[in-house]
Amino acid sequence: MTDNSNTRTTSPEKRLQQVQSQIARALALSHRAADATQLLAVSKTRSAAEVLELYHLGQHRFGENYLQEALEKIEALADYPIEWHFIGPIQSNKTRDIATRFDWVHSVERVKIARRLSEQRPAQRAPLNICLQVNVSNEASKSGCSLDELPQLAAEVTALPNVKLRGLMAIPAPSGDPEQQRIPFRLLREALEQLNRSGLKLDTLSMGMTDDLGSAIAEGATIVRIGTALFGPRESMGQ
Ligand SMILES: *Cc1c(COP(=O)(O)O)cnc(C)c1O
């Protein structure tokens, strides 16, 4: 468990180091390679200046939930080779900006959205990396496809030309108990393994946030999405 009580007073450098060493410890505990999990800094509600501060400390991957807010930051930071990940709910009339401005999308849950992203991805850019969001526990947000729908959705997205299906993402309900918390992450890992046995080649499990990153890494997370532990507590927006 993380103690974030002092995140307001700690420097960004210190917080980044703390998160990095938490990831390193969790990887070592489960005998995984030291570089097996990437850190995605979730910068929703944070300013471009705060993003830039972490960028200069060596953090180059950032995740955003709200499109309008994200586009402003991407514009402001256009001179920096930042890898931008869209991790929020996707409205179908907003796919063009996502397809144009982002490198990854973690929150695809319908084939209709994936088709639009593929059609709108600019031809000169590499395929857009996609994770399918799966509802593996009774998630508060009810976002994500069900485990039953997943094989069909994965097959349909794999067939699209300008997106590349990389893996799965989940936001399980918090349990408070690290062992219990592993269960939904294990379900997501098993779903990925099942898809790979059926012939897909998926390499990404996007799972784990500030309060459950240890459990997620123990179950094989390859990307953890961390906001609070890096930037301090958010104001009410962006929960
Ligand atoms: C806000 C958010 C995060 C980061 O959550 P923290 O608890 O602040 O680390 C991760 N993933 C998604 C999808 C989010 O919306």
| Chain-averaged pLDDT | 94
Query: CATH topology, what is it called?
Result: TIM Barrel
**Helix coverage percent of residues?**
25-40%
Largest β sheet strand count, sense and barrel closure: 8 strands, parallel
Descriptors for this entry?
alpha/beta, 239 residues, binds pyridoxal-5'-phosphate, TIM Barrel
Can you walk me through this structure?
The chain is of the alpha/beta class and 239 residues long. It has a single domain, classed as Alanine racemase (TIM Barrel). Helix content is 39%, strand content 16%. It has helices at residues 12-29, 48-56, 67-76, 95-101, 111-120, 150-158, 178-197, 213-218, 228-231; strands at residues 38-42, 61-64, 83-86, 104-108, 128-133, 163-169, 204-206, 223-226. An eight-stranded parallel β-sheet has the order 7-6-5-4-3-2-1-8. Strand 4 (104-108), helix 5 and strand 5 (128-133) form a beta-alpha-beta unit. Helix 4 (95-101) crosses helix 5. The longest helix has 20 residues, at 178-197. The mean pLDDT is 94. It binds pyridoxal-5'-phosphate. The site of pyridoxal-5'-phosphate has 12 residues, from strand 8.
Q: What's the arrangement of secondary structure elements?
A:
Elements: H1 12-29, E1 38-42, H2 48-56, E2 61-64, H3 67-76, E3 83-86, H4 95-101, E4 104-108, H5 111-120, E5 128-133, H6 150-158, E6 163-169, H7 178-197, E7 204-206, H8 213-218, E8 223-226, H9 228-231
Parallel strand pairs: 1-2, 1-8, 2-3, 3-4, 4-5, 5-6, 6-7
Pyridoxal-5'-phosphate is lined by residues 42, 44, 65, 87, 171, 209-211, 225-228.
